[in-house]
Sequence to fold (658 residues):
Amino acid sequence: MTNDRAASLLFLASGAYGLYFSVQLPMGTWNQPGPGIFPAVLSFLLLLSGAAWFIRGKGKQRAADEGGRRGAIAVAKNLATPLKIVGLTALFVLSFNLVGYLLAASLYLFILLLWVSRYGIAFSAVLAGAIGLASWIFFGKILAVPLPQGFLPF
Amino acid sequence: MDVLNGLLNGFQTALSFQNLYLCFIGCLWGTMVGVLPGIGPLAGITLLIPATFGLSPTGAIIMLAGIYYGAMYGGSTTSVLMNVPGESASVVTCIDGYKMTLKGRGGAALFISAWGSWIGGTLSIVGLMLLAPTLANVAMKFGPPEMFAVLLVAFVLLGSLGSGSFFRTMPMVFLGLLIGTIGMDPLTGSMRFTHNVHELYDGIGLLPVAMGAMGIGEILFATEETLVKVIHKIKFRDLWPTRPELAASWGPIMRGSGIGFVIGLLPGSAHVLSSFVSYITEKRLAKRPEEFGTGRIEGVAGPETANNAASGSAMIPFLSLGIPTGPAPAVMMIALLIHGIQPGPMFITKHPDVFWGLIASMYIGNVMLIILNVPLVGIFVSMLRIPFRILFPVILLICLIGTYSVNTSSFELAILLGFGIPGYFARKIKYDIAPLILAMIIGPTMELSLRQALMRSDGSFLIFWESPITMTLIGASALLVLWNIYRALRPTAASWEKALEEGT
Fold:
């Protein structure tokens, strides 16, 4: 599948979702437009443009099959590092309120430095602790951002 | 006289110790983010938004604007010395800038780049100062139909001038507009697409979306690449250009100022587009265009001037109409909204201290930047020795706290990450995500204008064809759409040749 066709599927799905839920809202009349009309029109346009891209992609599909495969390989290539980062960030977001900022941030940085950046355990631990603490002082104390404490007393 | 009085008052505000300090911090941080590949002005501005919470709105916008135009100065340093663009507007500077470095003229390229940036930046502030109040005065007479027509033309331009084709960009615009409708309907109070999630009642936060799609997406993309590059050293005495180099730069600098100023007014990636247009213009005007790409000073002077001029004029629609033309002005607009200030036609009248303080600070900031970027360039270059594998976790963490600190909401962190993933893939498959963000920001105003106009006209669409302003703008939008359809459907030279071959 070419990149454009993959993107067109996303547009089609978004358009279908938008249209399905917007038609359930009051549409009103042209002199009193309701809350559903604008999203319904947009969803329709999104569906239309998504379909146009999909058909255009189909027309080009045979000629671009090889290119499309190469494009897909290029997209999949190097995906490991971003995936690791996304996974770790998701864990950080989930644990943030539970374990508190200082611990969550230090752990997050430690694993990133160790696993993604491939530094040694000692270096990663010292750097992660130092940055975690510095950011906690800067944001939590100097800028007074109410960072979650979690189960820690500070 | 009003302009002079305003400017004098602006200098009084900008020259206070605190505002001078904030301007300096903004310019310094802007130069740093411009120098460091992988962090653009958008990430730079967002990272410092939490630091503005305790500041006055004037101080906050002075600092954030300093980052924006400071990044344009800093972006050329890595382009010239390492062949790595510090930010997207400096891509074109790599072509001749790096070749000059290989010839031993990298210092001169940096000097001319800073000099051109200063001239382009300063001229565009003069334009901003003169044009923004006039435009705001005109816009104050705008009713909902005129506002809708302005936004319509902005969206069509966004599609036409974006980095992708019109029909590739428009679905992103529609998607952005659709995302902008999430939350409470401003006219009836009905909930749209919220699915009983309380955090969505006020809509999706603009900052986590912009930061996620642009900032996180950019960082994820940057982690794929190796950043081990050769850094060429520059000595202070090497910075001075020769007389012929100075003479050859004047034309490109003046043309770059004009090109950048005009393109900066248009929605889209203005500073990127302006540097490309300036480069192409200089190449076309050159007596020996074949020498471009081998280290011509004109190839550095024009584009670097243009992107700085564009960053100044991009503030005009944002401040006087409330229409941000790019992601960085959009984030500045969000920052002003957090401070309770609504950019738009009433902004200059209601907050003259903020507007004129900003203008005066931009003059001062440009002087600071030329000092920072010429004699102190070595300090910024040494920053490039910090490995990106240390830098990126820090940037990620600051993005997360920056987003969290606006509303202390973990939900917004999820949005940040949720938009970071499509932002990354969009970059990977070469789709421009900026139109989506701009559409999301401007969309609610567009919907409100459309519905108010229809209510006023009792449902008649002829209201959009009543005033000369709306007629011109809607006519221009229609022509632009037709032109884009023609561009997409017209036979290319290759298809003509093929048809002729088949015919014979």
Remarks:
- DSSP finds five helices and two strands in chain A.
- Chain A has two domains: 3-76, 80-142.
- Chain A touches chain B through 65 residues (CB under 8 Å).
